[in-house]
Amino acid sequence: MSGVPDILAEVAPRRSYFLGLDFSTQQLKAVVVDEKLKVLHEAAVNFDRNLPEYRTNGGVKKNGSSITAPTVMWVKALDLLMDQLKITGLDFQDISAISGAGQQHGSVYWRKGAEKVLSTLDPTKFLFLQLANCFSVQDSPVWMDSSTQSYCETMEKKLGGPQKLADLTGSRAYERFTGHQIAKILTEKAELYFNTERISLVSSFGCSIFLGSYSPIDWSDASGMNLLDINSKEWDSQCLHMCAPDLKEKLDKPVVAHTCLGPISSYFVERYSFDPSCQVVAFTGDNPASLAGMCLEAGDIAISLGTSDTVFLWLSGNPTPSLEGHVFCNPVDPQAYMALLCFKNGSLTRERIRNVYANRSWDQFDALLNCTPPGNYGYVGMFFDEQEITPKIQGTFRFDPSDQRIDAFEEAATEVRAVIEGQLLAKRVHAERLGFRTGESCRVFVTGGASNNKSILQVLSDVFNAHIYTQDTTNSTCLGSAYRAAHGLAVKQSDAFIPFNEFMADRRPNFTLLCSPRVEAAKLYDSMAARYATLESSVLTQL
Ligand SMILES: Nc1ncnc2c1ncn2[C@@H]1O[C@H](COP(=O)(O)OP(=O)(O)O)[C@@H](O)[C@H]1O
Ligand SMILES: O=C(CO)[C@@H](O)[C@H](O)COP(=O)(O)O
């Protein structure tokens, strides 16, 4: 036993379930866990497939470098998701607390008067019909957007350079970070900005619907805006003023992520028979929630292979942000931080190559990957279909064994192995720059859609020379949200903060060892990582 009192049993002697949600790029997902935090139900609504009327591709709409998603689509997805959960036989009365997550950095603009609508929703009607007119900006900018370069330059310049901004907010200026997206809306659509009474992140937008009033933004997701002082955990007034007037009021005070914000809105009580005392715990970013779902410990590294690929780890002690990657406030420990690297060209790039070379089939893709040896006979590829984040670069770069740039590989299998090796070597090279050391004693925890693919995971194991672990569900974001709901409720019922790792001690999820590194392949990737780093630098200097 951990010595932590079983607060869940004390507060809720009957069934006590927890609902975790994830408003991610391509889908809205949910997981329900029981009092032991074991998964009972999972559900998902895919935006392209289940809501074709919004005409998204991969959950988003592209207009050059501006990338958005229709805000009301996420609301309609929630209507569908709740109905899906209902038909699993779930009794919503059993849910003691809810939390959730959202794709990071994306923003939602609530029109003046929208909170009134939120708090007086008619339970006989769908949410999307009632909230359709509540958004002053119809299409929310999302994390894939890269249209705010000039705003980024301005902020870095005014703050005394990129490192100064990173020291303050955890990151240098990034185009997808919300402060710059808000500045762009003010410049291009001022009347919409002035008609906005509240700006939410995707996470706090989802939370607001469950609360029936505006939810504050939690510290962890707030760290992805270039607006929060990650040391004081307050908005930085200089950064706010640089982006837009009255922004402090439109954002409200950020809160620590485990905050219980209040009971669920009467809409959900009346429409779905939730218990009126069911608590809503602040939602956070999808990567922070995933860190909670994987119960990461110091020394472990997590890799999420979702729409984006991300690499993240728990940071103890004082944060030392650099010009690459991000430092976010930790979602489960108010004193700690997490480091994150984001790669925009993740699953969608792999999918494109699968569609062209492997007949849209992951089985055929795997067969091609497995018929080529580690090292790909010396061929290397970098595939940045969209402008990459780490590092900032776009285009396709293929090299032969003597490092000469070539236009195409001769074999489909070479292209397939090149995309996987290139993506995974990039993760290793950039994680090492953050101070991470690969090696047999290191454990890599994987999650996200592509972590279903064992052939890809074997390459990951060899490239990182590390053992690869997965959970029973590849959806650690939802799981982390459900854990955070349970933890937030326990903290509310307790007199003192309960460390998350202690709280989870008797409830930790199962991890399965899926792949172990092969000695010869791992050796080969040591030298290939150095070669990849040199090739990447040469590409960057030639831009
Ligand atoms: N067997 C597989 N091999 C490789 N990739 C896969 C496989 N199954 C699903 N995926 C990828 O998973 C992606 C979705 O991952 P997910 O974590 O659900 O994304 P998000 O949370 O960003 O919406 C899809 O774009 C798909 O390419
Ligand atoms: O921009 C980032 C992190 O900084 C992305 O990781 C988004 O948070 C999207 O997440 P997925 O939908 O790919 O999980």
TrEMBL record:
This is Xylulose kinase. It catalyses: D-xylulose + ATP = D-xylulose 5-phosphate + ADP + H(+). One of its GO terms (cellular component) is cytosol. Keywords: ATP-binding, Carbohydrate metabolism, Kinase, Nucleotide-binding, Transferase, Xylose metabolism. Residues 302-488 form the Carbohydrate kinase FGGY C-terminal domain. GO terms for biological process: D-xylose metabolic process; xylulose metabolic process. It comes from Daphnia galeata. GO terms for molecular function: ATP binding; D-xylulokinase activity. It holds the Pfam family FGGY_N. Its EC number is 2.7.1.17. Residues 142-293 form the Carbohydrate kinase FGGY N-terminal domain. Belongs to the FGGY kinase family. Phosphorylates D-xylulose to produce D-xylulose 5-phosphate, a molecule that may play an important role in the regulation of glucose metabolism and lipogenesis.
